[in-house]
Amino acid sequence: VTLDGIELRVLHIPLVSPFTTSFGTESVREVIVVRALTSDGDGWGEIVTQEAPLYSSEYTQGAWDVARRFLIPALLDRHRLAPEEVAGTLAPIVGHRMAKAGLELAVLDASLRSEGRSLGERLGAVVPRIPSGVSVGIQRDASTLVDTVAGYLAEGYRRIKIKIKPGRDVADTAAVRDAFGDIPLQVDANSAYTLADIDTLVELDRFDLLLIEQPLQEDDLVDHATLAERLSTPVCLDESITSFKAAGDALALGAASVINIKAGRVGGYLEAVRIHDLCRNADVPVWCGGMLETGIGRAANAALAALPGFTLPGDVSASNRFYTQDIVRDPITLVDGHVDVPTGPGLGIDIDPVALDEFTVVREEVRR
Ligand code: OSB
Ligand code: MG
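== o-succinylbenzoate synthase ==
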């Protein structure tokens, strides 16, 4: 595409209910929406950073600054640019993968729209719809958790993931297992433990979980390998998998037997596909993680999760899991526990300009 400019917006979108993890509670989703302005039309992307650097080192104001001062100027310098050239163009700038991913997605959307091709087709989707899992935050107590999970099961979600942290792990997991029996269930610690907690983590083995997600810190690959030796529950990495290289290293070390793929965390949907291919060749199951995406990123995640190596249900839930009002015209819904892979050109979404403006708190346009 011929890139004439990029518009960035910070949005504040209220959540239907507060979302609590081991690292904090959010009641408003702060997110950056990217619009690529090209001679062939607009393309949309989303930078999935959160307000504070608690999940990863990236955060909204940091992403905004690096995008505005370094990433966007580098892209605009190229002027004519294919989506496949975005990552290489931005490679000299270290890190900031979520910011890079959001920009790449906007260019990819513009380019695919101009070709009349869908993102699913471009990435290699093989199914028209995908089973939907839901990520359930830490609740006030175990009985509230059971009620919350009951609601999601009644809606049809095919897999439950509960957030855990020290002091809210074994009893919460036991409560959900006892209440619902043999449902597909997994837990996510968001790095809240160390190897000193190994006895608690071993206790989780009795619940026959699909996996335990990111028990230890981001750079604890060797400790994760040590832990994996001691657990019968498969260890899945999220935070640690920051790139194709990190994924290969984690597998080589035995630090993970399952990988959560999030395009933002690894620098883009194209890098995400490379990790998928690596894992598929190694017979390692992957699933699509989420970052409370708006309709933009949610559509892209549905396309990614339709690749053949995504053999576990992902955190690709319906828009109404998090939002009463999305910024796209027909947000993703749950039908029979599945979500449809969009088929329209690009992301296959139609931005709702009124909702977009309603949630926008800052807007800036950078032109060449
Ligand atoms: O660890 O998977 C995570 C949300 C924000 C940051 C990290 C995580 C999450 C989730 C929610 O679990 C996933 C979703 O978007 O549904
Ligand atoms: Mg996670």
